Amino acid sequence: MEQTDRSSRIAWAALLLASLIAPVVVGFDKYLIHVGIIISLNVALATSLWMIWSLGFISFAHAGFMGIGAYTSALLFTKLGLSMWYGLWLGAAMSGAIALVIALPLMRTRAVYFFMASWAVGEVIKRNFAYFRDFFGGWDGVFNIRAPKLDLGFVEVNFADRLAYYYLALFFVVLTVLVIHRINNSRTGMIYWSIHENELLAQHAGINVFRHKVIAFTIACALAGLTGALYAHYQTYISPKSFDIWKSEFALVHVIVGGLTTVGGPVAGAISLTVVDELLRATGYFRTVFFGAVLIAAVLLLPGGLETIPGRLRSFFKRSDK
Amino acid sequence: MTNKKSNLSRRLTRRGLLKQGSMAIAGGLAAPAILPKSAFAQTRTIKIGGAVPLSGPVAYWGQSTMQGFVDGAAVMNEAGGIMIDGEPYMLEVINYDTKGEVADSRAATMRLVEQDECKFVYSQAAASTVGMLQVTEPAEVLSIVACWGYLELFGTDYPLHFRGEMSDYEQGFAYMPFMIEKYGKDALKSAAFIGPDDQDGIDCHFSYERLMKHYGVEQKAVEYYNWEDTDFYPIVAKTIREKPDFIVTSPSPPGITASIIKAAREMGYQGPISSPAASETETILEVAGEHASGVILPVTNINPSSPTQKAIEKRFLERFGTFNALAGNYSWWIYALKAALEMAGTATDTKAVAEALAQVELEDTYVGRTKWAGKNAYGLNRQGVYDCFTTTIDDGKAELADVRFPDLPDTF
Amino acid sequence: MTELLQMALTGFNLGLMYALIAIGLTLIFGVMRIIQYAHGEMFMLGAFTLYYWNAEFGLNYWAGVGVSAVVIFCFGAILQIVLFRPLHGKNILYSLAVSLGLVLIISSSGQILFGTTVKGIPSAVTGGVLLGGTYLSYERMVISAVSAALIIALWFFLRRTTTGLAIRAVAEDPDTSALQGVKTRRIHWIAFGLGSAMAAIAGCMMGTLLSIVPTMGFLATIKAFMIVIMGGLGSVFGALIGGLILGMIDSVVTTTISGDVALILSFVVIFLILVFRPSGLFGQDWE
């Protein structure tokens, strides 16, 4: 156990180091840095979805809450002129607040029904962005959402520069993953997994299941909102279509392919599948077909997901030692 | 359209299945492979990039657009490339899929501009265009797209941005005069609009409003349907309750237009229905059956007749296994670009090429005469205008009924 | 008055077709406890089978509907055996991911194989009567009748035949029914095939009434899920009621208010139903 812990710590450190020096490795290729930013955002989204999963359910409203964060930050910028430094936190807060209110009735539903009800929630959120045209801009969306500047006194960093934005996104992704990792490894995390394993038993053991579910859902949605704000200021344009069901589904797919039991799963899944999608772009017509094939193959041939690879390798080498 | 003809073209389609598969590889995977690179090791290359929806719900439009460029480039390369300032240049077409999404299109365009260093790009449909423009204008890359709405992203602020396809607005100056001739002005006093509930629908309603005002037509019902809708009875019932003289269904795709026509006719509505986006006559005939009558389809040339048009149809069938009128409509863009490159005498200075392109007028393309207009409306001549081939469907038969250059007002 | 009648007729017709798609989905969930996200793709493939049979090769329409049902039954059964059987008993998310992959593969290869242009299947029945402003289309009447007949037939099949009873037994309690000698593996592929065939027939009906494209499956999936959630997963009767509710909302609200309100309203209705009856209108409490 201790050895696993140490090697996983080494793996995390290596990943962090790799992502820090990645721009240098790719020779500051602007396009690859863009891919890096997309990977970061996908990792953040998938990880926060995984946090909900640690309680045993899956939300299809995740893209919707990401949208709430994105729209809050974007409208604060375009209507009130407040920069992303406000939008990030207010977007997350707004997303969390709405999640809290919705979670109260939503948590009455269970298992598959939760899944479906959350899908309806996500769809209504998206539809509202389109329906209230005067406020949210309708299907037209919101344009000119600029990235912020940071005056450090001796130097001014303009995050419209892609490299700067990469490190900004990386910072918040690391923050998101760290927060979720800490919660997961704490006593609260154990409570979550006990709810995941057996809700009824957890309830009888004196755990307030409902409260834990609502709080975890709120935190995860607030983190999704934060990701949404980062997304909006990077893409500079958002519309209701940016937050449709497919976004939630792809986040879910990242979690499944990566692995369901550790926080490393969604991280690995989001990184690898985003890279695969990017590699497939040049295949034109076949892009979607190939992506679907990769997805099915990953699920069928690698049960448990990417997170099981280290364990598999270890047992493989142990066997060959003998 | 006679049965024989449609059967023939269908058989070609079926036979083309395999061909289509291989074409997909030729077109999508390895469009650059069309160029035997070694043979032209000495010649220079101009890269043209496409960030188009090749998969997803709007793939039909994306693929049709791509075909024009792949075919045009192959034709020009076979003829020895294009001569710029006395030097031959080969064309290389690179295509990336955008799934018709804004963010994905932005990414595809970045890859074209930043990695492949394309100076000329093209795109299709509003979402892909919105994503593309954020990249191309700051990077001084020339773009040619088909996009009907988002007029705030067009004109003076986007000098390198060309819209090659006539929107429903420009088409209106051809199909409205035609309809007035066909039905008489008294039969067209009021109109209704049915469009999808998204930005395209809203923008097309805006064009429709301006157009109806121009022709003094009273505007009655305005209805938007959801893309999730399957049945059009409710929306059509609501529209015809107000008894408009005719209905405009832009920018509804052929399938939805056909459903609207069928529903309207079944519920006893008699007036003409004009659809500036539904250029698949066969679909409409199949879906609406005996109800397909009084249908006006602008920019739909179902009957290639000139040698140029016939040659394009033949080449597309050979190369891609299919040909549709829409792909024909987009096929002139690359020829206009070629003319502009030759006129500007440079393959790198996109501003000069854009200036030249705005002046390019072609005489003999799939859509007849083409030019760029819109100076008074948008501040610059960036909107493609060309002969509008209008097909009508009456009593279950489709025929090319009218060819005319849009009668643009002075304010355009 | 005539307007009301027209709305009611349209809603009823739509509702029955929706129910036909949804019943297949609810059957598959009930028996296998998997979320078949690619259900709409079966709907699409069913419509295209009929298209090639009828419009391309010019063979008999109704025979084509049967052929389509058989072809999609086999296809569904094969999918179940090859892809979903290995995942049986595992986390529901794995089968969900596989069916999502299937959605991507089937709809995109549909675009490559069938082409991206919209197609139409010529109607087998045409004409209709205008009764005091209300239009009765024969085609719609036939489609409603076929849908209703199929739903009733399925209901009898599940209650009167050995296989039907076995399906219900497996849905109720797989372990006990296995102990009683029911071959659960066989029941799984039969139920999957049957559910897919229902979707295929719905695809034939709707494809004739409307038009067909390779990407149309996703729409059907959305509608089917909305209905199944409303009615309760695993409940055939619930799917019928859910279908009719959705059809009526689509028809009445769109005609009287507008399309976007209809769509938002149907999601709100789903949400409210789930909040007050967390297992849908007629669903069991699956754990």
UniProtKB/TrEMBL annotation, chain A:
In which domain of life is the source organism classified? Bacteria
Q: Name one GO molecular function term.
A: branched-chain amino acid transmembrane transporter activity
Entry GO terms, CC: plasma membrane
What does the UniProt keyword field contain? Cell membrane, Membrane, Transmembrane, Transmembrane helix
Which stretches are transmembrane?
Answer: 9-26, 32-53, 60-78, 84-104, 164-183, 214-232, 252-276, 288-306
Membrane topology reported for the UniProt record: Multi-pass membrane protein
- Localization in the cell: Cell membrane
Protein name per the record = Branched-chain amino acid ABC transporter permease
TrEMBL record, chain B:
Instruction: Give the GO biological process terms.
Output: amino acid transport
Going by the entry's taxonomy, the superkingdom of the source organism is recorded as: Bacteria
Q: Which UniProt keywords apply?
A: Amino-acid transport, Signal, Transport
Q: Which InterPro entries match?
A: BCAA_transport, Leu-bd, Leu_Ile_Val-bd, Peripla_BP_I, TAT_signal
Q: Which Pfam families match?
A: Peripla_BP_6 (PF13458)
Leucine-binding protein domain residues: 45-376
Report TM segments: none
Which family does the record claim for this protein?
Belongs to the leucine-binding protein family.
Q: What is this protein called?
A: Leucine-binding protein domain-containing protein
Q: Which organism is it from?
A: Roseovarius spongiae
Automatic annotation (TrEMBL), chain C:
Task: Return the InterPro entries for the record.
Answer: ABC_transp_permease (IPR001851), BCAA_transport_permease (IPR052157)
What is one term from the GO cellular component aspect held by the record?
A: plasma membrane
Signal peptide segment: none
Keyword match Transport? yes
Q: Where are the transmembrane segments?
A: 12-31, 61-84, 91-114, 141-158, 189-212, 224-249, 261-279
Sorted keywords for this record are:
Amino-acid transport, Cell membrane, Membrane, Transmembrane, Transmembrane helix, Transport
The main location class comes to membrane
Annotated GO MF terms: transmembrane transporter activity
This protein is called what?
Branched-chain amino acid ABC transporter permease
